[in-house]
Amino acid sequence: MSTDDVVGAAGSHPVALTTSDGGRLEFACAPGRSVLEAAAEAGAALPASCRQGTCGSCHASVTDGPYELGPHSEQALPPGERERGEVLLCRTFPCGPLTAELPYEQSRILYGGIPVREGTVTAVDPVTPDTVRLELRLDDPDCQFDPGQFMELQAPGGEPKRAYSLANTGNWEGRLEFYVRLREGGHFSSYLADRARPGDRLTVHGPQGAFGLHETGLRPRWFVAGGTGLAPLLAMVRRMAEWQDPQPARLFLGVNEPKDVFGLDELAAVAAELPGFRYEVCAWKPGPGWSGPTGTPADLLAAALPELGGAAPDLYVCGPPPMVDAVLHTAALGGVPPEQVHRERFLAT
Ligand code: FES
């Protein structure tokens, strides 16, 4: 079937999307609708979060066809990526038949909408001065998701939803674990800082999102995190430990100051279970008593890449946009092919 065969309302344009595992999704996009909206109207919820061009989670590559890009954050879609035909589907408006590639497998598309469930807070533990470990238990214990995915959480009282990556792996007890950076004036941050208590009831929308592990044989897997960008990468290495994956794995975590370090016990637990897993933590502003490396995760990566004798690793990167961009730059200089770099930018919400 060609995109021309998709019939829609007058003035609509056919759209054909291909997933990384060869799945195809075809629908018509009415005038004034984004590709993301048109897909949802056709019954397919594509990975997305903000739906307004700021988070980058609806990233895709147009392979053919004219389109207009609506206003968006340059951190979500840097100019260089835009020039290569990369787009944010929530801001992509077809002007004719359009084909695009999605950087995730068909299983990440939710047919029938995003699941909405209720859960109970079981722990609210500060782990740094501005980071809280939040644990929930869903009413429905069947809690399957892929490492790298996120949930949107809604505090009691119908507050706005906020997206947070899961730090644990799918399970049959309904357990969800998050590391939330508290942001001044943020709705969910204020809830967590001021009044969250075990026993609170939260609404949970998900799982959602395209970020995740890719099966590429025995190539090394390297993970690069800034701050709470550790959460989805912790989920990935935990999954590797559960499945005893054979790929050699390294994780580089960067924090601003030593007081911002968290997750060491969890990383040590993975290292104890997963042969071939190593991790390093660096501080941008080390204080007296800091014995680890100084600098950024990009610096750690730059030092480590030349040590690698064989194939370039698959890279999984998550953190604030400037850190992610620095890591992408370092990876390109170090010869890591762009298709081996998977990233998620954490934007303040
Ligand atoms: Fe498109 Fe956030 S969902 S940029």
Radius of gyration: 20 Å
Helix content: 10-25%
CATH superfamily of the largest domain: Nucleotide-binding domain of ferredoxin-NADP reductase (FNR) module
Proportion of residues in extended strands: 25-35%
Which stretches are low in confidence, meaning pLDDT under 50 for 5 or more residues running? Answer: 1-7
The small-molecule ligands in this entry are:
FE2/S2 (inorganic) cluster
- By secondary-structure content and strand pairing, the structural class works out as alpha/beta
* Oligomeric state of the chains present here: single chain
Question: How do the helices and strands follow one another from N- to C-terminus?
Answer: EEHEEEHEEEEEEEEEHEEHEHEHEHE
Mean pLDDT: 92
- Order of strands, main sheet, comes to 13-12-15-10-11-14
Output the CATH class name of the largest domain: Alpha Beta
| Number of self-contained structural domains | 3
How would a textbook summarize the main sheet? 6 strands, antiparallel
Number of extended strands: 20
SS summary, helix count: 7
Using the coordinates shown, work out and report the CATH topology of the largest domain.
Answer: Rossmann fold
Overall, the morphology is globular
